Amino acid sequence: MFKFVILVQLRSKNMKVILFNGSRNEKGSTYTALNLVAEELGKNGIETEIFWVGERALSGEIDSLVDEAIEKIQGADGMVLGSPVYYASPSGELIAFLDRFYWKGEKFLRFKPAAAVTVARRAGTTACLDVLNKYITYAQQPVITSRYWNMVHGSNGADVLQDEEGIQIMRTIGRNMAWILKSIEAGKAAGIPQPEAEKKVFTNFIR
After folding, report:
1. What count of Cα atoms within 13 Å lies in the side-chain half-sphere of residue 164?
2. Could you give the C-alpha distances from 164 to 19, 158, 167, 185, in angstroms and in order?
3. The pTM is what?
4. pLDDT of 197 strictly over 90
């Protein structure tokens, strides 16, 4: 009996991931955590860019900020949402940004793999992750996981780099993201179509 092996030739494509920094501190602990993910993506041939949400989300510039982010995400294959923990939740800047970003840009986010990353001095990380993951699942985005919940601890960048377990978690996110992106490309090359999004049904339980 003969066995036939079909080899799928991946299309030559430069893949890119946008990492959103939701901290008020542009180069703080959240930036450090996102850089750890970006470094691992780079080792796997994935281009990265860190997009700082910063204070623009709450200073009257949110519309231009969202438009800029949507333009960038259209040319990207995946994304990471990063936030420090504020009162067991993402930063107010990031929440304001994501509310508009997902409302206006959902069609550009659909089926793009995404990961959420949270950073805290001590606690509140899992509650913060829950908030971020709800945005991701709303837009039918494959959720990228790690070997533990997607979190790292430290009140500043230097502290983050002392959290050995957290560093491993960030590296694993990067590797898993790269693998999923390449698997999606292999599927496209093999002729597997992307699911078609149905028209949304809205049910109102109040009569």
Report:
1. 0
2. 21, 12, 5, 32
3. 0.92
4. no
Q: What three-state secondary structure class fits 161?
A: coil
* pLDDT one-digit tens code per residue, 47-101: 999 999 998 999 999 999 999 999 999 999 999 999 999 999 999 999 999 999 9
Longest dimension (CA), the chain: 70
CA-CA distance, 67 to 105, in Å (whole number)? 9
Which pair of tokens denotes residue 133? Answer: 């993951």
Query: Taking the alpha carbons of 134, 135, 136, 137 in that order, is the dihedral positive or negative?
Result: positive
- Stated length of the chain: 207
Q: Which residues of 116-142 are buried (b: 16+ CB within 10 A; e: fewer)?
A: bbbbbeeebbeebbebbbebbeebebb
